[in-house]
Amino acid sequence: MSNGRAVNGFLLDITGVLYNSIYKSDGVAVPKSAEAVNFLYQHSKVKFLSNAKGNSNRNVARRLQRLGINVREEDVITPAPVVAQYCRENKLRPHLFVRDDVLEYFDGIDTSSPNCVVMGEVEEGFSFDRINRAFRILIDMPKPLLITMGNGKFFQRVDGPCIDVGAFAAALKFSTNCEVLNIGKPSRFYFEQGMNALGMKPEEIVMVGDDLMSDVGGAQACGMRGVQVRTGKWRPDFEKMPVTPDLTADCLYDAVKLIADNGFRL
Amino acid sequence: MSKISSVLIDLSGTIHIEEFAIPGAQTALELLRQHAKVKFVTNTTKESKRLLHQRLINCGFKVEKEEIFTSLTAARDLIVKNQYRPFFIVDDRAMEDFEGISTDDPNAVVIGLAPEKFNDTTLTHAFRLIKEKKASLIAINKGRYHQTNAGLCLGPGTYVAGLEYSAGVEATIVGKPNKLFFESALQSLNENVDFSSAVMIGDDVNDDALGAIKIGMRAILVKTGKFRDGDELKVKNVANSFVDAVNMIIENKVENG
């Protein structure tokens, strides 16, 4: 990669790249991710593109700050506010399957007689009763529409992989034959939020993530370059999968250092 | 049209809904028995054969326990044959059909209808067994939803589909619409199975009707239970209820398909 093309901005995934999640706690920072973030704020441009669906951008940033990672709230992009905006623009009346912490984004949106279901996560988890409510609403719609905040198969917690919202979206699609609209990575619409926030063309941007298909493959499909880190949900068998990262590094810090040492080219 | 000699009858939604018989179904069943052999085939995964039988008796049906062919029995046969040690996501009431099966160090996940166990904790445990220990995924059935007195409720298939997506595997389906399930039920009536003279009566357009048609049986879809408007467009023989379905058979009006 001695020459390569210029890298003018970075999109960083959060969970599994900046920190690893632990059940019912703030989690633990990935070593030297704080330094990497500080370095990018000083020497490049950086935004944080996450599929985190349980917390407001303010609380996502605060959690990272508590872990010593200085991320500014205004640089965080999560699906909930993007979904809310999508509902406003398309005059959708959602049945909300979301945590209280992100309800503020849906203020002023009509939720009576729903014509779509918006699914993130809820306080009590994906209980049968909660999923069944979403199901009954969907099956009665003439054209059932399910908007999901990401469609991840699983997320990595320190104690092991945990089933994620994508499983429940696949489940509801099986039962209701609904259309599933993912507003989260790897959808192009969602990556565009990151490009717009940086104010750059895709070819100027590098996306760094731990999810090969969603972060790396998704970014590449939009014309960005995708960097895989060996943290979070990374597995050795990723190398057999049909996506080839533009760069693979042991952690975010190493990825940033490699690109910076190459004169911000990749 | 050739005469119908064997009839497979779904239970829940077809001849009863929970504790209530479909009106007239008891008499219709007696009438049907004078014309053809019958077997009750059910994907109900939350109750043992003994409980199912008890319910039919309580609803006023004259049925022998041996006439009921359930996906739980078929699942047990599969587990024994493959030496599976399952992690069961199954209603406690069904567990008596799995007595004596070892569950140590699971190498399979067996899913039935167990709403109180359908949550992220249990599913994550199942997911880890499949993903990390290569456990097999067995669906006692893959039903999408069913009718209850409280309204439509999701079936086990929904959760099976979710696990298939996340773990990147395909489940083995034991109950309807698996060909082996229909075939085993018919074989218990006639050693030489003849699909073309057999009919399936049920309320599930996918698992009962289309499943039977796919293997060369005929099917009658009843407009009770989980029947939804539009289902009738997918099959040729549609009856308002089990009573009408029996009349169609007796009058030899069941078309192919």
TrEMBL record, chain A:
Keyword hit for Transmembrane = no
Recorded GO cellular component terms are:
cytoplasm; cytosol; nucleus
> What does the protein in this record do?
Phosphatase that hydrolyzes imidodiphosphate, 3-phosphohistidine and 6-phospholysine. Has broad substrate specificity and can also hydrolyze inorganic diphosphate, but with lower efficiency.
**What's in the keyword line of the UniProt record?**
Cytoplasm, Hydrolase, Magnesium, Metal-binding, Nucleus
- Enumerate the Pfam families for this protein: Hydrolase_6, Hydrolase_like
Catalyzed chemical reaction(s): diphosphate + H2O = 2 phosphate + H(+)
Whose protein is this, by species? Caenorhabditis elegans
For this entry, the protein name equals: Phospholysine phosphohistidine inorganic pyrophosphate phosphatase
Top-level taxonomy: Eukaryota, Metazoa, Ecdysozoa, Nematoda, Chromadorea
Q: Which GO terms describe its molecular function?
A: inorganic diphosphate phosphatase activity; metal ion binding; phosphatase activity
E.C. number, please?
3.6.1.1
Name the needed cofactors: Mg(2+)
Q: Does the keyword Cell membrane apply?
A: no
Q: What is its main location?
A: cytoplasm
- What family name appears in the similarity comment? Belongs to the HAD-like hydrolase superfamily.
Q: Where in the cell is it found?
A: Cytoplasm; Nucleus
Automatic annotation (TrEMBL), chain B:
Which cofactor is recorded for it? Mg(2+)
Where are the membrane-spanning stretches?
none
Task: Give the location in the cell.
Answer: Cytoplasm; Nucleus
Q: Name one GO molecular function term.
A: metal ion binding
What name does this protein carry?
Haloacid dehalogenase-like hydrolase domain-containing protein 2
Documented EC number(s)? 3.6.1.1
Which NCBIfam families does the entry mention?
HAD-SF-IIA (TIGR01460), HAD-SF-IIA-hyp3 (TIGR01458)
For the protein in the UniProt heading, the enzyme class is hydrolase
